[in-house]
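sry for the spam today, last one i promise. struct tokens for design, 297 residues
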């Protein structure tokens, strides 16, 4: 099985980035990643103002997927996530939704062992490993890996975890997949500005889906299907994710707009993935059992 080293990274998603790794549809492979700080914080003496934030959220890749062409859909299934032995959480003035209450920067190193994050002597959090950055090259322009969009990237969605499938629109030949920013634990919203940031490695399997259209990322878990949208304005993000789910329900359940809209309101939930990046990411959940949905495609 191929293992892609963490030393080949991009700091922006762009179609001009040349692929450095190559896989076939159906292939399973490992990707090693650094933490979101590119390994700059090893001890509690290093503070966020001390580091180079321009290289934050660097992503391993690009990984070219053979046969993926513009207009296709790339399915990325998360098979395993292995974490490093410690994670880090920083606070700094202005960081997170209550950042104005932080007067000085502080760094907390959190040991990771025996299935738990050792937050302090009394609090041990069960690990909930997830991938923060997962995306493909956009059709145009260059987008920093810290900024999510219709191409995916830093969606910081805690459901991108083992057992989930992420569907991404393909904009360039090969898709040029890249990923990074693992978390040992993170709640919806990423409210203080970080999860428990850590290095590690991820086992993925990719498939190329032909003759299907997808404007933005979708996510599938064993019990639900999600539309995701990332926008600078939260209301616009909500409207976009809701619009995508209504269109999905119209297609899958053979409904007109009015009935799909009603069904969404009766059975689906709006959820916040993260509130702290340049673009906010939200998702709409459609439960598989209630709506008799088998999969995205």
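last one done:
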């Amino acid at each position: 099985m191929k293992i892609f080293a963490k030393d080949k990274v991009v700091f922006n998603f762009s179609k001009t980035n040349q692929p450095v790794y190559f896989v076939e549809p159906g292939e399973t492979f490992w990707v090693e990643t650094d933490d979101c700080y590119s390994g700059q914080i090893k001890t509690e003496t290093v503070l966020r103002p001390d580091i180079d934030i321009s290289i934050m959220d660097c992503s391993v890749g690009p990984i070219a997927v053979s046969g993926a062409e513009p207009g296709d859909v790339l399915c990325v299934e998360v098979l395993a996530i292995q974490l490093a032995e410690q994670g880090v959480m920083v606070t700094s003035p202005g960081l997170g939704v209550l950042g104005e209450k932080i007067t000085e920067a502080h760094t907390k190193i959190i040991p990771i062992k025996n299935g738990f994050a050792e937050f302090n002597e009394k609090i041990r959090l069960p690990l909930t490993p997830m991938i923060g950055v997962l995306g493909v090259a956009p059709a145009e322009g260059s987008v920093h890996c810290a900024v999510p969009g219709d191409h995916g990237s830093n969606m910081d969605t805690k459901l991108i975890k083992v057992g989930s499938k992420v569907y991404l629109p393909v904009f360039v030949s090969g898709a040029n997949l890249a990923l990074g920013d693992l978390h040992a634990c993170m709640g919806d919203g990423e409210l203080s500005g970080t999860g428990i940031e850590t290095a590690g490695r991820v086992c993925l399997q990719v498939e190329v889906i032909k003759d299907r259209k997808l404007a933005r990322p979708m996510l599938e878990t064993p019990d639900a299907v999600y539309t995701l949208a990332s926008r600078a304005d939260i209301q616009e993000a909500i409207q976009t994710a809701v619009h995508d789910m209504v269109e999905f329900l119209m297609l899958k359940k053979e409904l007109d707009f009015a009935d799909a809209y009603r069904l969404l309101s009766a059975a689906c939930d709006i959820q916040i993935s993260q509130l702290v990046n340049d673009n906010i990411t939200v998702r709409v959940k459609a439960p598989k059992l209630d709506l008799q949905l088998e999969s995205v495609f």
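The chain has two domains: 2-209, 218-291. ok im logging off now
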